[in-house]
Amino acid sequence: MYFYGKKVLFLGAHPDDIELGCGALLARVAEQSDILCVTLSDNQDNPELGELMREHYESMDILGVPREAILVEKFQTRNFARDRQQILEYLYQLNSEHEPDIVFCHTEADIHQDHGVVTQEALRAFRGTSVLGFDVLRSSYGFFPNFLVEVTEDEAERKLEALAAYRTYADKYYFDPEIIRSTLVRHGALADRPYAEGFDILRIVGRFDQGLH
Amino acid sequence: MYFYGKKVLFLGAHPDDIELGCGALLARVAEQSDILCVTLSDNQDNPELGELMREHYESMDILGVPREAILVEKFQTRNFARDRQQILEYLYQLNSEHEPDIVFCHTEADIHQDHGVVTQEALRAFRGTSVLGFDVLRSSYGFFPNFLVEVTEDEAERKLEALAAYRTYADKYYFDPEIIRSTLVRHGALADRPYAEGFDILRIVGRFDQGLH
Amino acid sequence: MYFYGKKVLFLGAHPDDIELGCGALLARVAEQSDILCVTLSDNQDNPELGELMREHYESMDILGVPREAILVEKFQTRNFARDRQQILEYLYQLNSEHEPDIVFCHTEADIHQDHGVVTQEALRAFRGTSVLGFDVLRSSYGFFPNFLVEVTEDEAERKLEALAAYRTYADKYYFDPEIIRSTLVRHGALADRPYAEGFDILRIVGRFDQGLH
Amino acid sequence: MYFYGKKVLFLGAHPDDIELGCGALLARVAEQSDILCVTLSDNQDNPELGELMREHYESMDILGVPREAILVEKFQTRNFARDRQQILEYLYQLNSEHEPDIVFCHTEADIHQDHGVVTQEALRAFRGTSVLGFDVLRSSYGFFPNFLVEVTEDEAERKLEALAAYRTYADKYYFDPEIIRSTLVRHGALADRPYAEGFDILRIVGRFDQGLH
Amino acid sequence: MYFYGKKVLFLGAHPDDIELGCGALLARVAEQSDILCVTLSDNQDNPELGELMREHYESMDILGVPREAILVEKFQTRNFARDRQQILEYLYQLNSEHEPDIVFCHTEADIHQDHGVVTQEALRAFRGTSVLGFDVLRSSYGFFPNFLVEVTEDEAERKLEALAAYRTYADKYYFDPEIIRSTLVRHGALADRPYAEGFDILRIVGRFDQGLH
Amino acid sequence: MYFYGKKVLFLGAHPDDIELGCGALLARVAEQSDILCVTLSDNQDNPELGELMREHYESMDILGVPREAILVEKFQTRNFARDRQQILEYLYQLNSEHEPDIVFCHTEADIHQDHGVVTQEALRAFRGTSVLGFDVLRSSYGFFPNFLVEVTEDEAERKLEALAAYRTYADKYYFDPEIIRSTLVRHGALADRPYAEGFDILRIVGRFDQGLH
């Protein structure tokens, strides 16, 4: 099955979430569609993460995402629950300005205190739009990918390369290339494909059409 | 979100199932893709249903499905469970001959004794392929459409017209145009669209792409 | 199956929620039982909603609910999560004063930021009591009605009439009479009845009895 | 909440299932409604169960069920799956002759090879009717009672007395009075009542009404 | 199946939660493993609960838990949601200091406003560790025990004795010995054992091994 | 968490199922416990599989399973549904002769026509015993491992070596060492361990104890 959106929004809580969750697919979408990558917290409260923004831009660059397609906001890490109404209003505005056809954000199953807020508010803000959930290993809990998206070996490699740009996190097990690659292979195997990224479905509103007009 | 398949298979247990389950979408797909509509039982054991095949072809014709895209097999109504291995083998062959990109069949939630067999065997036979489940009111049980597909007013009207061709079932409440139309409007409202048909997701294997090549 | 409560509580977050969620059933219950309709926020912070309270009373009047059976409180819209402990204490008091046999409130599946709070606190406050969840289209998400309640054509019509009293919301798609009616017909069809309203079950504590004493 | 049916059908696979699953409620319903207790297999293939039918009638008598309200059929134990079409046709006929308002049968969660067949066919045969599922300990698996029905101490005692009539099964742990009683107390506690029997909901179609006419 | 942890953490929101949820198992574990019992709120804001801490220690003593294995913190009852980040940080520290092999805490299904917070934060804090959920009757909602743990009659008796130490709560129905005992018997019956305590599985990370080294 | 059984039964439909599903864990258990590996069909109806039995014994030998701990029966592949009552009776006998503490069999989520039968009958036959479900990629559907079991690198390697013994299936993608290894790494990552095999929980009946006596 082919699926397509002319405008695609990728939404993550922190720098690295989008790349971890669906970097290979992002590399593919960036070549075909008008994309926007929004990270809600820049994590700059944490002095140990001084290099993070630079790494995020480098990582996104490897995936083919130009600087102007990247937004990084200043919602406060670990306090998204407290600030959920402002996040919702921010997303409402994003929706009316960009009108995405598809939104990729955190899976509902994720247990990080900020990630679940992103998902809930995205479901509210992007009514009538398809919303697919990606998984991030460090806070994964009970995620099952019933929407498997094949990616090429080249796209898989670019995901690995993009994640290697996060030197700050080089020691984290969830940045381990073998684990990243194994997830791509495992999800590929579930789909009878060499590589795939897996999503769960928060809401699908589709039109049968190649989207040519 | 756009979705698309070059070859699309519609699979129902009895004449009328495909049209009831997704007639409006079928009218749309028939214009864009290479389709095949397979009904597993022709119901011709039942002497009261003598007109049924004629009505099925007429109904399909209204939806734009040519005769050569329609197969009606002779598996015995109400005994699909007994004959499930043969049905599976039939579907394996269908898969190797036609290699569909998307399969539409009965939802897993359906409680008719034959419908569930179709769904189970389709999941086995079409591994690595997207399978979406449609609902048929007379045996509906706990179906929730998390894959909503918008259709136009014209496609909705053609579904109503196609079902009217089943004069044999004119008195059945589940052929009542008001109920058919209400379902299209209700599913549309869930999707913020005027009309939609609803499916549940048995398996999605997708590729982000317009499918142009 | 007949079901009955001598004292029935309808609980909504905002004016219009109860009528949208179960106006037809409310018209029926109002004739047979001692009812109380509680709306937690009067929405009067919003200057564009100046007519809302008048419309709510008019709408309720059409459904046969007398003014003294209507309570509208001043919890702040969009901040129910912040104020959940006070809402819980309010509901505890409501329970000890009114001792309802059945409570109708928002379904757990609803994604509005205030609606879910009402449901959660109602489950805490009305322990040992049946609680049924209604759906409101603008924030509907994955709702499936496994408790279908038939209503008459007259009750269905009164729901439509009551909603027409909300002139403030006349342009909202979820007040569109065709959508309201289609939902009543669709849920009716699931129950083999001409019209029904659908609920999900948050908790049932029942007694087999006609409730005559 | 009160609930009521003028005609109530109790449906079990084998003698003892109905009494184990909902004997206390049956004792209550038998006093208020027109009931029918149908057991699909008489288990008379098994020579060790020669006393079983006598015990079943005695047990039912203790619960206040007259002989003419008891049907015991001859479907073959352990082969219900093979004979499911005949069982379905039997239930269709039962439905058209008796037109029950409520059907109590085995929960869908039950793992006995015959019990699940009864449930599936009942859902098909009694469309448009409320169907509630009871649990039987020996084949219980993942049952959760979201429909709790309070019973009196006297009704609880009569259930214990009725089960004691099954002398054939006196050594079975699932006939142990302490276990039977503990289940009644535990389910009562979940409902804030002294005693309750628990059901899950297979389908509810209700009317708000005392059922007086 | 045997299961075992060298270091076991029991985590409850309020004094009495651990004993109510799994007192019999705690009596058993206390004899075999290095345990720690942590209660997050001492409930000492409430002047009617002046005896509670004494009763908690007495109750724990009956179960064989020495004073030094008991921690009672001062998070504020009913405000755990507000204070969730501090609770999470407290649990992170607990994890790094004690490194438990198994954590017992409230089931996710519990509807008390504080209990759910404990569960969510425990899942975050104890990543890579087995977490099992216990049920507490006063806020039980939809709990199903798919991890049944047998206990001896003596352990069951000690649970009853320990709960009797809570004279402050002597009138609460959920301290009623018959209800406590019925729950032990009912869960035992589900497991084909005389007595069991029931848990649901929040996460299992196991090693097949007797844990001798 | 440690878990342990003195007698462990591994139950698969066809030669290769046990090794694919949990070969690494089997290598570990074989060193510590009294094991029995039962395959219900020898697949010898299929002339292309003439080497299969030899390969099965060789594969099991690599995992440390002696010939006398291996049973291969002659139930007919693809017809387990038809023969389910005989399979059940076979399993009853297995249970009374071997009395396993833990049973590993196919996950309930598996869609192969034979695998589901094994699971259902195992749940019936081994009442009161823990039953864990393993996944087999070729018929995997919606499996999520909530019981993760860590294995060592050596055990992971032996699984790969054992599967290489199936030269008959050398071309099947689900025997591809990279896919097998990726699954071990991915499941390990979910558990914060280098390697793990994943199971779902069909039933757990446990005792807190090291199982020394």
List the helices and strands and how they pair.
The structure is a homohexamer of 213-residue chains.
Chain A: E1 2-4, E2 7-12, H1 17-32, E3 34-39, H2 52-62, E4 70-72, H3 84-98, E5 102-106, H4 115-125, E6 130-134, E7 147-150, H5 153-164, H6 177-190, E8 196-208
Helix pairs in contact in A: 1-5, 2-5, 3-4, 5-6
Walk me through this protein's architecture.
- 6 copies of one chain form a homohexamer.
- Chain A is α/β, with parallel strands linked by helices and 213 residues long.
- Chain A is built from 6 helices and 8 strands; from the N terminus they run ββαβαβαβαββααβ.
- In chain A, strands 4-3-2-5-6-8-7 form a 7-stranded mixed sheet, with helices on both faces.
- The relative contact order of chain A is 0.19.
- Chains in contact: A-B, A-C, A-E, A-F, B-C, B-D, B-F, C-D, C-E, D-E, D-F, E-F.
- β1 (2-4) of chain A pairs antiparallel with β1 (2-4) of chain B.
